Amino acid sequence: MKFVVVIPAYNEMPHIEDFLRRLRDYPYEFVFVDDGSTDGTGERIEEYGFKVIRHDKNRGKGAAIKTGFAYAVEGGYDAVITMDSDGQHDPELIPRFMEFLRDADIVLGSRRKYMTPANMPLDRYLVNRITSTIISLLAGHLIEDPQNGYRAFRIEVIKSLRFERDRFDFETEVLVKALRYGFRLKHVEVPVIYGAEKSHINKWKDTLRAIGLYLEFLFTS
């Protein structure tokens, strides 16, 4: 199965350096979408020899992933893996995602085994548990770790659905729409890795966007 790894990136200097060094050890095709970075992130990625697709201004994580999806469709790929650029996702697990994708349409990384207040910042733990319950109800299917950006998709999922959201709520939209459409979901266990990276989530704006998305799905079920 021919696949590409899509990685959205926005102002990730300097901690992206270690991640880029690690990726050079793997024989996969990595495509970064630089979402309007102003700190030299895109240029540094190119110096490591990786392909970069650029947005001229910051449009949001969802918009960056959709740009990567379009690249995959145009390139004739069979599948897409998405990873975050902050070093939390271990590229060693890529073969595991592809293995699980043989019997599924979407494979979602799950930190459920490790998601305890002892292993995660308390605010992230609480938000994850609440959103997991709500999104699972909306989708009619258990979604263990809806905020996890480490995922694999068959290209049919991308071609069959239309996605409207451009920010972090895009990742919820993808799961709910795909499961309602009838696509198959499997989870693959991934570890919890938290470093010194700074989250780009705006707690207030992105929370309001999430609430709006939940209401939209609630009234269109």
Commentary on this structure:
- With 221 residues, the protein is of the alpha/beta class.
- The chain has a single domain (3-218), classed as Spore Coat Polysaccharide Biosynthesis Protein SpsA, Chain A (Alpha-Beta Complex), CATH 3.90.550.10.
- It contains 8 helices and 7 strands.
- A 7-stranded mixed beta sheet has the order 3-2-1-4-6-5-7, sandwiched between helices.
- The longest helix has 18 residues, at 122-139.
- Mean pLDDT is 87; it is low at 200-204.
- Given helix and strand content, the structural type is alpha/beta
SSE order, one letter for each helix or strand:
EHEHEHEHEHEHHEH
CATH topology: Spore Coat Polysaccharide Biosynthesis Protein SpsA, Chain A
Superfamily at the CATH H level?
Answer: Spore Coat Polysaccharide Biosynthesis Protein SpsA, Chain A
The number of E-state strands comes to: 7
% residues in beta strands: 15-25%
Q: So, CATH architecture?
A: Alpha-Beta Complex
Sheet of most strands: 7 strands, mixed
Number of domains: 1
| Percent range of helical residues | 25-40%
The Cα radius of gyration reads: 16 Å
Average pLDDT figure: 87
Strands side by side in the biggest sheet: 3-2-1-4-6-5-7
**Ends distance:** 34 Å
